[in-house]
Amino acid sequence: MSQFNRRRFIKTGGSMVVLSAASGAALVPVLASAQETVKLGLLHSLSGTIAIAEASLVDAEKMAIDEINASGGVLGRKIEPIVEDGASDWPTFAEKTKKLLQRDKVAAIIGCYTSASRKAVLPVLNQMHGLLYYPTYYEGQEEDKQVIYTSQEATQSVITAIEWMAKQQGKTFFLVGSDYIYPRTCNKIAKPTIAKAGGKVVGEEYAPLGHTEFSSIINKIKAAKPDWIYSTVVGGSNVAFYKQLKAAGLDGTKQNLLSTVVSENEIDGIGKENSVGYYACMGYFESLKNPQNERFVKALKAKYGQDRVVGDPMECAYNAVYLWKLAAEKAKSFDVAKVIAASSGLEFDAPEGKIRIHATNHHVAKKVRVGRARSDGQFDIVYESGVIEPNPFPKL
Predict the structure, then answer these.
(1) 350 beta partners
(2) How far apart are CA 58 and CA 45, in angstroms?
(3) Closest to 264 (Cα-Cα) out of 185, 142, 374, 117
């Protein structure tokens, strides 16, 4: 190679600079490469029975990433999203987590929806020292050092919902849920809360995940004549459950029902006409009136279409990206241990209002609300709590 064409590559401030020199001349920069990126994994069910509830979270996460990149990125780097499909299959979630951490070298993962998927990835996270932001309401009973939980744990929603219901029309409750950890744990919390409120459980039934035939359970509900159905039926099963309730004459005008798992996104799949009058307890509703939420909803509809709706897990997924950004900037590092340490007490003005990561248990202190479904698929907010501290290990 001619000495006049010699080049040396050096790294400066996260960019590659090409230096050229001719026969003893001083080195001078002649070319700068593209800015380095930092990778975030987005791991959700884009197919399978849970996709009705989970797939939309990726849209909210991508929007947060686009906003952050447009404002300069994080620590001088643009975020590069790496999207993987967990396919509503728990071993697949574990495999994809390993791939994201080992091959893609992501700084963190925003992901999972069901507790089963989250439980499947925990061993991988701990073995490989990865970081997961989990954006879905869940049953609690967990505090993992590699996870930041950005939605409400069960005590924040279940206790609030049951206490509110007990103050309304009657105090008899029929509990119905999908047969896995979240519904069963929520009902373990609900039952003593109902008893403390002077209420009575008149039925408790579970259906397998993905179940679509609820006639037997609905017959038991009709026979018990509860004042309230408390539902923790999840995913695509809600399409069948709500339609069959309505067909049996138990629509929202004749039967009180409250769910802690049906947001605007699920109603979009269930059908607005099948949901009118039923209640939900969530940390976030699209109809919230505040400047942050109005900007958030406007931006999301501008990006994905005016017909798109925004539900609680979407907002918590959006928040998760910003909470990671704020923690990395506070830590001045993408190092997982430093980001986790910087997350303690971190606050964010979210679309739902100000939220704060608890100093020690990695969960978020926040408000929760009760909403009643309207004919347009939105919710009228009928109750709002104060800020509730997370309590993932309640004494029942």
Answers:
(1) 353
(2) 9
(3) 374
Per-residue pLDDT of 291-329, as tens digits, reads 999 999 999 999 999 999 999 999 999 999 999 999 999
How many Å apart are CA 258 and CA 280, to the nearest integer? 5
Write out pLDDT tens, residues 10-66: 443 343 444 433 334 444 443 333 469 999 999 999 999 888 889 999 999 999 999
Helices 56-70 and 291-304 cross at an angle (nearest 10°) of 110
270 neighbors 252 (Cβ within 8 angstroms): no
Question: What distance in Å separates the CA atoms of residue 45 and residue 55, rounded to the nearest whole number?
Answer: 6
Query: 């920069």: which residue's tokens?
Result: 29
CA–CA separation, 391 and 365 (whole Å): 9
Size (the chain), residues? 396
DSSP state letter for 27: P
In angstroms, rounded to a whole number, what is the distance separating the alpha carbons of residues 109 and 361?
19
> Which residues are bridge partners to 85 per DSSP?
44
Q: What would the two tokens of residue 133 be?
A: 């932001």
All structural domains of the chain: 3-32 (no CATH), 43-152+289-365 (3.40.50.2300), 155-282+371-384 (3.40.50.2300)
